[in-house]
Write the structure tokens for this entry.
Amino acid sequence: MKRRDTLGALLALGAGACAGLPATPTDGGSARGVNFLPAVPYVPTRPEIVDAMLEMGAIGHEDVVYDLGCGDGRLVIAAAKRYGATGLGVDNQPEQINMAQSQAHWEGVSNRVRFSLGDLFELDTRPATVVMLYLSVELNIRLRPKLLAELRPGSRIVSNRFDMAGVWRPAKSVVVAGTPVHLWHVGASD
């Protein structure tokens, strides 16, 4: 089946539920608040940064990885493919969600990952054990109270490039190919 035909078939089916992940609207109903659209353009995460983020997040097969502002879904797809994790990617751009769903199918992990059109500030992050971010300093700071309130102690937050400007110092930061990657642990120096 050609890639274009597969994308059409996936869109016709919608985002099916996968094991271990809660059902989340994919019809755009949860995107009414769209709090991050003006602040964050889509910029794909480079492969070496994906590797560093997954390693820093210490992803394992029991993890539930959420990618807030997932773009094409490469982080949750890689977490599922390499480590057997499940994942949910959320974005407010339908074309990104469509691309992510197609990629998950082609990578053979559509049974382990889902993608949802929605608002990051309305998303229930409680099921996540690892949250991936590539947003902005301002959005990271705005998300911090929500993540601390919803995530369990020991959950990890990993951010590509952007920290939290001293509001919450990372437990660890590394520079990969000139790009900082930051890690926070929920329950440690919140």
Notes: The radius of gyration is 15 Å. The longest strand covers residues 179-185. DSSP finds five helices and seven strands in the chain.
